[in-house]
Amino acid sequence: MMTVGLIGLGAMGSGMAASLRRAGHSVQVFDVRREVAAAFAQDGGVAHDSLASLGAACDVIVSVVVNAAQTESVLFGDGTTPGCAASMKPGSVFVMCSTVDPNWSVALEARLEAMGLRYVDAPISGGAAKAASGQMTMMTAGKPEAYAVAEPFLNAMAAKVYKLGDSAGAGSKVKIINQLLAGVHIAAAAEAMALGLREGVDAAALYEVITNSAGNSWMFENRMAHVLAADYTPLSAVDIFVKDLGIVLDMARASKFPLPLSSTAHQMFMQASTAGFAKEDDSAVIKIFPGIELPKGKA
Q1: Secondary structure element (H or E) that encloses residue 6, with its range
Q2: Residue boundaries of the structural domains of the chain
Q3: Phi, then psi, of 226 in degrees rounded to 5
Q4: pLDDT tens sequence across 45-72
Q5: 172-195, pLDDT tens digit by residue?
Q6: In CATH, what class is 173-288?
Q7: Pairing mode of beta strands 118-121, 46-47
Q8: Distance CA 14, CA 38 (A)
Q9: CA pair distance 231, 130, nearest whole angstrom
Q10: Would you identify the CATH topology of the domain 3-167?
Q11: Is 143 a catalytic residue?
Q12: Cα gap 295→292, rounded to integer Å
């Protein structure tokens, strides 16, 4: 029986690990917060104190960290603590679930192949609730031999596993385009709600009408509910879209492709971040609009 390891028990990773365990897989985990890994293992599985020991124990490792820099550290260490790559068995698979520059993902595949390791470029989407229920989406690309090992684990974590290419990069490109839409939709939803508030429209009534009209979007319905509740607990933080829309613009800039809406949305998230809302929920981008009184939620 193959063993799967998962690194990063955050909002998405904890649900993904639970989905793997629920599907009957032998799940081993690592998180820099050792108490979080230990708590997961109490209900089944193994918590590791080091990335090196996790790497040695698993046939497939799923990485659910924030960005490319953290992925580099997970794999190759931080200069003082070794990563997992050096201890992984030849032929084992590293599944990378972060939102990253597609060119970086291509280079990582080559680097791991030189070490005798396989790689799946596998960004994710759907949010914490879908990760916990095994219903999220994975946008994947990788060589057939990598899929042959990793596929049972991918299917346990996601309702839809899209195979977008036989080498790294395609998965990350599609995820970047998804993030373009997500970021622009959140920014547009915030702008619409802010205008309504400025014009004295009742926020709850506006929400009810829009969510039952043609102007609705999934992001309006989801994120403006946070605004109505005055709950800016970061399920996805403002700074995530500072990063992700930055990657979107970098990818387009490399081919001299104009993205006017993405550029504007990126500036809105940048403004929210520098105004002190960097770690709040991304719906806090609404706080950049002047002269409005935001809902205060239930007392």
Answers
A1: strand 3-7
A2: 3-167, 173-288
A3: -65, -40
A4: 999 999 999 999 999 999 999 999 999 9
A5: 999 999 999 999 999 999 999 999
A6: mainly alpha
A7: unpaired
A8: 12
A9: 20
A10: Rossmann fold (3.40.50)
A11: no
A12: 10
